[in-house]
Amino acid sequence: MTTRRWDADRGARRALRVIAGLPSGAAALSDPQLMTNLLKDLLPDSPRESALLVAAAQCGLADVLSAHLAQGLDLGTASRLAAGWFAERMPFAPDACDWVVGELAIVLGAGPSVAVASTVPDTVPYEDDPGGGHPAGAVVAWGDDDEGEAQVPAGLAGVSAVAAGWYHSLAVSGGRVVAWGSGADGMTRVPAGLAGVVAVAAGRYHSLALAGDGRVTAWGGNGYGQATVPPGLAGVTAIAAGAAHSLAVAGGRVVAWGDNRAGQAAVPAGLPEITAVAAGQSHSLALTAGGTVVAWGLSDFGEAAVPAGLAGVIAIAAGISHSVALTADGAVVAWGRTANGAAAVPAGLAGVVAVAANGTHTLALTGGGRVVAWGANDCGECDVPELPRPVTAIAAGYGHSLAVLA
Fold first, then answer.
1. pTM for the complete prediction?
2. DSSP characters for 357-402?
């Protein structure tokens, strides 16, 4: 029995969760260059683990594992097959192959304890809660709680993704969606049997979920058709929810539905390949594969007026009347309404790996797991509490904020 411990401080697991939370996360799992660039900042002191994750991206290991699971194989069988396939192509020992498959399984939605038991039985397991009373993947919420949107369900852990709407919150744990907050229009009534979810998005009164097989499920308010997923929509890699419209990326193109009174669902013709989308109240953003941003819809405050020369963007976010972009060098750029401070990026902010926006505030997550908030603070949405652990994912609601603990 070996006692060699991979990723002893769980830095690689935190890094993977941060990467998976990026709009480009799905692409990064199969893009060795993008994975290398991200890990330089997120995992600078773990060359063994970084090398394995880059090699896994080079081989498209996450896609192989997802394909096995999509065929109906149980996690144990799918993991063993994927690890064997990887070992045949890369010069790594079996325990290394098992470890990287297990971590990919976790970031794709498997529970950490299940993944470890299935893939690396001879490796010293991680303690799920080494102290502090906060289990791995717990969610912390702050700000407006008039509708219970900041009342995180007791026992919620192992969360891989979160979303915050105007009056409700969503989380993905073990591939399933947990919802809390206002039940108006059924926006927290998760459809029975929904599983295999890898991402969620929350609007004013509606919710979206993206499954690992590229299917989108929507529920809640549907006054403008925002919860009516277009027939035949498949192969989706990213989603976003505005106040009353929805966006998806499928095959590199943007699909939009719902409220279009300000042109927010009128996707411009001739867009290049798109990797991510973001939706504000009445405007939309798209991130091109080349790292530029395209915007359309309402621009009363300049929220759809992308700054000239903006390039090298890896993530985007949109609030009610402002827009945010994260560049590959960890810098944040914001534009749109400035009166409430939502577009006023704090001086000296650097090393950012994720951004979130909604309402009239903005959140940023640094590579060290720290959350920075700015903008309107009417409900305490920018009063980041003292967090007991580094953060791996963030979400901004209309008047509340969420963070997932490592």
1. 0.73
2. EETTEEEEEETTS-EEEEE--TTSTT-PPPPSS-EEEEEE-SSEEE
